[in-house]
Structure formats: structure tokens, C-alpha cells
Amino acid sequence: MSDAALAIADLNAVSDRDGEAILRGVSLTVERGETRGLVGESGAGKSTIGKAILGILPRAVRVTSGEVLFEGQDLLKAPAALRRRLIGERIALIPQDPMTALNPGRRIEGQLTDGLRLWRDLSAGAAREAALKLLDEVQIRDPERVLRSFPHELSGGMRQRVLIAAAFALEPKLIVADEPTTALDVTVQKQILRLIRAMQSAHGTSVLFVTHDLGVVAQICDRVTLLFGGRVVEEGRTADLLQAPRHPYTRALLEACPRYDQPCAGLRPIPEQIIATLRAEIAA
Amino acid sequence: MAEATAGAAPVLLSRRPSHTLRACLREPKVVAGGCFILFLLVLALGASWIAPKDPLEQDILLGATPPFWLPGAEPGHWLGTDDLGRDALSRVIYGSRVALTVAFVAASLAAALGATLGLVAGWYRGAIDATISRLVEIWMAFPPVLLSILLVAVVGAGVGSVIAAIAIIDWTRFCRVVRAETINQASADYVTAARAMGFSQGRILLREIFPNVLPVLIALVSLEMGIAVIVEAILSFVGLSVSSDTPTWGGMIAQGRQLLHQGWWILAAPLAMLFLTVLAFNLLGEGLRRALDPVMRR
Amino acid sequence: MSSRIAYRLAMAAITLAGVAVIVFILLRVVPGDPIAMMISPGASPADIAALRAHYGLDASIPVQFAVWARDLLRGDFGVSISLHRNVLELLAERLPATLELAVAALIVAVCLGGAVAVIATLLDDSPVAPVIDAINGLFLAVPDFIWAFALVLLFGVFAPILPLSGRIDPALDARFATPFYLTESLVTLHLSTFLDVARHMAMPTLALGLPLAAIITRVLKESLREAMVQDYVLLARLKGMSKLRLVLQEALRNAVAPTLALTGVQFTFLIGGTVIVERIFGYPGVGNMAIDAVINRDLPLIQGLTLVFGALFILVNMLVDLLVVAANPRLRHG
Questions:
Q1: Closest chain C residue to B5 measured between Cα atoms?
Q2: Rounded Cα gap, residues A54 and A160, in angstroms
Q3: Chains with 3 or more CB pairs under 8 A to chain B
Q4: Which residues of chain A register pLDDT less than 50?
Q5: Percent of chain B at pLDDT above 70?
Q6: pLDDT band at C1 (very low <50, low <70, confident <90, very high)
Q7: Range of the structural domain that residue B90 is part of
Q8: What is the pLDDT of residue C46?
Q9: Which residue from A40, A105, B10, C29 has the least number of CB within 10 angstroms?
């Protein structure tokens, strides 16, 4: 239990605007060195959980109860200075859209070395060396040129690699990956996923992988938590969940996935009654 | 002064003027600015009844007396007197006449001229647009103040020349905005539909496009009135506006500058009026722009 | 890039030519005879005719223009009718003062406007924010003409700490190698002289600069606000950067280009504004000279001044355009 990198216990959040519950008693853990998938449809609450961890919930959303334990601290209640250090140095984010996550007016070098210079107190030269090594690790072929470049001079895939490098720069304990492959070409997605997996096992980082894509989950997640309507529907080891799902919703979700080996089979959307049952469960 | 930027969606003025009027009156800036302008109008129209003294009446013995809250003030002269003993308050009140006349007429003329050229340039494009745009560019290369002084100096002083000068110099401001908005509107679907239905160009321009250009224009006219008041004040200051007998705020400011150490109030009173007037026109213009723009209203 | 500059220069030349032609014609077709203002009473018609011929005002307008253009290209701007001196000399004498004033006003406007915008962005959560907005809105309504006199009242009457006119205290008996008093005294470290010139320039500079500062504050604040909600700022914030650093290091550079694009045209108004501001403060620049030239119908001088003002306008416009491109890394690389 205490070996978990991240432990969310019974997290509840509501929208201040209409009182609607956004998170309903969510509990999940990310063990040390594991990749935990956080899956759900749009609006299921997965990005809300990510934002709660990082302390960037929108103003209209309020946590009513629960804890987010990281390194023995409840991130929700920690004093600002401590939170800043924990989130800045020990947690990292791999964002969704590489187009907008990099500052168009700054060269890559600055953006990559910011964290290193801030938290490791490195000189410009030492930080640059570290940055070059990181770019090498994410398999960027001409790291010197990339450091000198502006974001608009790089392709989408390269930008995402830079962001991944930035995320691993400070050897964080936990990385929150917020649908990092959604904005990429399908051909690039697989490369990036493999890269994240490789980096993660090389550095021993724990990863919370937020996604709506079960295919992605199958590829790189050790354990999975499935959300619906702000509530955990099912969780467990990826292999178990995909092969022997327990909850009818999970089963229906898997059935709804188009199968490449059965191209003639029609699409099977999730049956209405399962959703209705789920909603009723939640309301109770 | 910042120019109005062309909007993206067509601004649909409600066909019921009372609806539009109510939207305008709900805007606090419109109310604030509008009230002051109305107040000025009352002053200007009713000057002969409101002003306590004759603005031209001189009394050297009462020269340079201070306003009522300072020692040495003369009873009856609330804002003091200038060096010739003329009552400052009365002169300020009468000064509103010139200011408002110039403001309304000059701004309207400039708007009419600029909007017409802007509509033509934006609708017909091509060589006509190129010529008008080049003309606007050359026009805008003149420092406006210098040009207005030049025009009035050569044409001769007087309210008429001041008005003409302002209109001739500032039409470019309207032309640019109206042209941009016309180009915007011209590519809209409702225009294509009108053309397909066979309406003449003139009708489309007047009945379809112009009403959608009008809100931006109205807001700009209000701003222009503020500018016109300032230009008139500058010209009076330099001595090129109306004859020195007729009281103008600019003329009083010039006097006040001369007599600064004899009496600062001679400068302060017209300056304050000028400032409040410009502020009022600005608020009115900004408020109208917000009230008439459905995007911002949301 | 260089073809863009070449195109701009060509357009500028055409515009300037257009300006020159229009002013030329304007001055000759409207009433007001400069000769009439110069002659002493009792002059004979022959004298008047001779004077007219001397200034070349007896020829037809196209001929006059051709003569003027030809002389211009040789560097001869003519002789001032009212001041009886070479126009080019007069311009060279007074232009530096105006340039120093305009540049000082620009620096004040950018620094003040920029600082207030940054501060307002840093404080955007606090209750001070709407107050700053309201004051800014108020300042936006005040043109240089009103500022000038408000400053006159403030620092000339109520707290008389600044001189009301002139460029330098004549009692100081300072010697200058160039007509750039402010710059020269700063560079040569004659600090008491520098302070004196600066004190004389303080009010006109503020009068010119404050309206522009208000506009820069309004536009820059909006651009900063737009930048601050971008993803890259969020990412930087998560890394642990302070708000000050976020604004200065991340947001500001992306806010400069749009601000420049929107406020650039206002820089040219600084040049026009010198006319009246110099007059109000008795500052010996070209603006002040222009007013007298116009009143005296001094044709050669007016024409020379118009060219100068026109050229300055166009130059500033070009510089702003180039700066906008330079400020945007995407545009810079074509």
C-alpha cells in the first residue's frame, strides 16, 4: 500500500454551476513503476482526475471530499509552496496537443532546460548537455538542430517527443499522460507509445495514462481503471479486464470496439439498457 | 484613437427601432455619456437664458478675479473672470455652442464622405478600390493637426472652414472601417442570395449592406465628435477658428496659458469642460459599439 | 525580405510624391498671398512684381512645380520667405529637437504602457484589477492637447517644479557640437546640462507619450491575457514557475507582435502631435516652426516641412511593419 506512487482515495467533486456530481467516490492507485490506464468516454471524468492531481481544476469544479496522496502528502490540502515543489519537480505532465503545449516564441532549448535549471540548479551549459542526452533518449536524430529550433519548425511527432523528453527530464516519480497520442497521426501513435513504454521502464517512473482508446490501453498499460459518469466501474490488470471483463458495461465496451479481423461484422454500440442501469447505479 | 475593428458576423439591427434603443439605454456608458451630451446641448441652446452674464461684457476693474471658493472672489462671477473682466462661467457656457456645432456637423460630414467612399471601394473593389485606398494612404501621411492648420490658414478662419477642414481630414478614418466592413458583408450569404434574386447593386448596397455597417459607423461618429471638439479647440488655441470675440474653449485656453500666473482658473475651467466633453463622447461611442454589436452583447 | 523592403520604399516614394504635389497645388490655388504679407507699406507695383519674380511665384503652377522638384533633387529646398534663411538649414537645425522629443515620448509610452500592462496581468485576480482598467479607460479619452495643459497646471502652477517652455536654460551657456542636446549631453556625461534639457522636455514628452501609453496598456493587457490561457503557459506553471516569470518569459514575447500590429499606427500620431505640443511648450522644433510657417504663408518652408513630416510618417510606418514581422518567429523564417 505504502509503495504506491499515487493513491487517490474516495475522491468526490461537484460542479459549482449546477451542483452536478463530476466525480463519485473515485479511488485508484498507481503502484511504483507501473503504468495505470484511466479509461472512459468523454465526460467520464478522467481529465478531471488528472487536473485534480495537478492542482489545475477549473474554478467551477470543487472537491468535496477525498484525498490525493503522493509521497505521503495530500496534494489537495498541501500548502502552496510544498505543492509547487511536488508538482513541479516530482510529477510531470505529457500533454495532449503538442501544437499548443510548446511556446511558439521560444526555442526548444529553453523550454527543455527550464525545469532542470529551476529544480536542479544547473548552469546553462550543464542543462544543455542534459537536454541533448534527453533528446537522444527520445530518438531524435539531430538534437543540436532541434535545440536551436522553434516549435513550428518541427513535425507533430517530433514535438511530442520533445514533450516526453521534458516530462522525464527531472526523473519524476509520477507522470500524468493526458491522451498524448490523440493529436497525432496513426502511424506516429504507435512509435510514441512504444517510446513512452521504453522510457518508463528505463527510468522506473509510474505513469497514469489517461485515454479513451482501449487499443492504447492494451498496448502499454499494466493495470486499468474504467470510469463512467465519474464513478469507477471496474479496475484490474489489463489482461484480466480485456479478456474476462466482469461488469456488463466493460463487456459492452469491448464488444463495441471494431475488430480488424472481422471487417464484415457490424458495429455494436453499447446497449441502452446497460447505460441506463449504470446511471441508476450511480444515482443510488 | 484606436479604430473600430471590422466584425465577423453581420450585425443585425432589429427592424424595431424601439428594441435597439432599449438595448442602447441599458448600456451604462451610453447613459453616462449621453446624459452629459444632453446637458451640453441644453447649455448650448439655452445659453442666453442660463449664462449669468453677457460673455462679451468687459469690466477691466474686475479683471482676473478668482472663482467663488477662493479669497478675493467677486459675487456673481462663479468661476472668476479673465483679464478683461469677462465672466468665465458665461464664456464657458457659450463656448459649448461652437464646440457642439463643430462636433455634430463636422463628424457627420466626415462620416458621410468617408462612408460613401468606403462603401464604393469595398463593393466594387478592383481599380476603384486601389485608387481610393492609395488616396487614403497619401491622406494619412499628413500629420492631421498640421493639415488642419494649413487648410484653415489658407481658406480663412471661421467655423465653416474649421468644419470643412475636419471633414476633409478625417474622412479617411470612416472610409477604412466602412470599406473593411463592406468587404466582410459582401461575401456573406445573404448578399449572394440578393444578387441571385436579381436586385440591383445600388439596392443591395443601400438596403442590405449599409444597415449592417451602420452600427460600427454610429459608434465611430461619436468618437469623431470628440476628436472634432479637440481639433476645434486646437485651432482656436492657435487663433484660427472663430473671431476672438466669440467665446470658444480653445481660445479661453490660449488666454489662460498667457495669464497663467495671474489666474490659473482661466485655463482650468475650459480645460475641464473640454475634457468632460471628450470623455462623454468617448463613453457614448464605446457604449454604443457594445450595445449594437450582438457578439459582444452575449 | 529585401524585396519586401524595396517594394515598401517604392510605395513610400510614390506616396511622398503624392503628398508633395497635393500640398504644392493647395498652397497656390487658395487665397492668401505670401508676398502681400512681406511687403512694407508704400512699395511700388514694380517692387512687388520684382519680389514675386524673385521667389518664382510669377510662373504657372506646373512650371513652378517642375522648378521646385528639380531644385529639390539637387538638394536645394529654397529660401524661407518669412525667415529669410535656407529652408534646408532651418529644417536641419530644428528637426533634431523634434526627433528627440518624439523618441523620448515613444520610450516613455512603451515603458510606462508596458509596465502597467504587465502589472495589471500579474494582479488580474486581485480587486485592484478593475480599478486599473477604469483609470486606463479614463486616460484613453485624454488627447495630448488636454494632457499638455493639465501638466501645465500641475507642474507649472500647483507644484511648479518644471520649466514651462523652451529647450534649455539660456543662463546655462552650454555648448553643443550637435543639435541633439539631450543625447549629446548624456553621451558626453555633462549631467547637469542633461538634467536641464530633460527637465525642459519632461512635460512635452509626457503630454505626447501618455495617450500612447494608455493605448499600449489596453492592447498589451489583452494580448497578454490571451497568451496566459494557452497550454504552454499551463505547462510552464506546472513546472513550478512563478507568475512573474510566466508573464515575462512565456507570455510577453507572444503578446508583443499582436500589440505592435494594433498600436503601430499610433506611433505616427506622435509625429503629428509634436506640432501642437511644441507650440504649447514653446519647444523649438519643426512642429512649432510649422505653425508660424502656415500662418505666414511661407510657401517654401511649408513645402519643406510637409516633405519632412510626410517622410517621417512613412518611415515610422515602414519600421513598424518590419518590426511586426521580426517579432513573429513564424513570419521571420518566411
A1: C262
A2: 20
A3: C
A4: 1
A5: 91
A6: low
A7: 18-297
A8: 79
A9: C29
Dihedral of alpha carbons B84, B85, B88, B92, sign: negative
The residue that leads in pLDDT, B61 or B15, is B61
- With beta carbons under 8 A apart, name residues in chain C contacting B143: 271-273, 275, 309, 313
The answer as to whether B38 is a domain residue is: yes
A19 shares a domain with A136: yes
A137 CB neighbour count, 10 Å cutoff: 18
Query: What is the number of CB-based contacts under 8 A between chain A and chain C?
Result: 58
Helix axes C299-327, C87-122, angle to 10 degrees: 30
pLDDT in tens, C207-230: 999 999 999 999 999 999 999 999
How far apart CA B198 and CA B76 sit, in angstroms, is: 69
Provide the pLDDT for residue C31.
62
Which residues are registered as beta bridge partners of A61? A15
Tell how far CA C292 is from the center of its chain: 19
Is the same domain home to A228 and A252?
no
Contact B154 C30 (CB under 8 A): yes
A158 and A99 housed in the same domain:
yes
Co-location of A125 and A266 in the same domain: no
Say what the alpha-carbon torsion angle A141, A144, A150, A155 is, to the nearest 10 degrees: 0
Q: What is the DSSP letter of B67?
A: P
Percent of chain C with pLDDT over 90: 39
Q: Which three cell numbers stand for residue A214?
A: 482501449
C80 Cα to chain A: minimum distance (Å): 52
CB proximity under 8 Å: C 270-289 to A: none
- Total domains in chain B come to 1
**Residue at B193 is within a domain:** yes
Within-domain flag for B3: no
C334 DSSP assignment = -
Asked if A101 and C253 come within 8 Å (Cβ–Cβ), the reply is no
Domain membership of residue B103 (yes or no) is yes
Contact B156 C276 (CB under 8 A): no
- Look-up of cell digits 470643412: B164
Residue A63: give its domain's CATH number.
3.40.50.300
Residue whose C-alpha is closest to residue A282's, from A33, A55, A68, A12: A12
Note whether A266 and A227 are same-domain residues.
no
Q: Which residues contact A67 (CB under 8 A, 6 or more apart)?
A: A7, A8, A9, A10, A11, A74, A76, A77
- Cα separation of C227 and A80, whole Å? 24
Grid coordinates representing C229? 490561457
- Please give, rounded to a whole number of angstroms, the shortest distance from the CA of B12 to a CA of chain C: 27
The answer to whether B275 contacts C146, with C-beta atoms less than 8 Å apart, is yes
- Alpha-helical segments (H) within chain B: 17-25, 28-45, 47-50, 88-124, 126-140, 144-155, 159-186, 189-196, 201-203, 210-238, 249-258, 265-292, 294-297
Find the domain containing A266 and state its range: 246-284
Q: Does one domain contain both A187 and A258?
A: no
Q: What is the number of domains present in chain A?
A: 2
Task: Find where cell 502631435 sits.
Answer: C273
Chains C/A: 3 or more C-beta pairs closer than 8 A? yes
Task: Tell whether A132 and A175 lie within a shared domain.
Answer: yes
